[in-house]
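Hi Y.,

Following your request, here is the sequence exactly as I used it, all 182 residues.
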Amino acid sequence: MRFLPKKHFRWREPKEFVKLTDAFARAKRLWWHRTLGALISAASLMLIWFLARFNPRKQPPPFEIALPMFFVGGVVFAYVIPWIISLCPVEITFFEKNLLRIRGNAHRTIKYSDIASFSWRIRDDFSTLVLKLRPHNREVLIGVPLEISREAVSQFLLKRHIQSEPSTSCSSSASNEDTETK
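Below is the corresponding structure, written out as tokens. Let me know if you'd prefer a different format.
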């Protein structure tokens, strides 16, 4: 048994794909989610300030100075940090028993045993690996640059007893027209 798992494939998702997935995520988010996040973060900072007053070794700033700091901190947590993370590239790594997606300080591990099937969506500038996860048939989209062999990735997944579904192809202009009409 190896101490470190063997990496079979590793790549960064294409920037165009990341921009598209970020745009879809923004479209799905309700307008008040970030505002509520900022208020909850500000309330948490206020609670920490309040509890710090009970420690005789701590001298928190007066409330008049701390109040604007709470709201600035809430805005930073809800708006600035997610924006910084959105600038980070997404890295995909295929290991022996799972695949790993890393973006900024967040990661997601998907075990091959949780994947019911896979298919490809092929565009002019990149490909998309579509994974259907068990038990709810939820789809996970992974951007694949053209330099990565789709055939090699498909064979790797087939060896892990993951079913293949038919692939679809579309041109960049056709998919842009589809997203604009929706």
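Residues 28-86 form one domain.

Thanks again,
Q.
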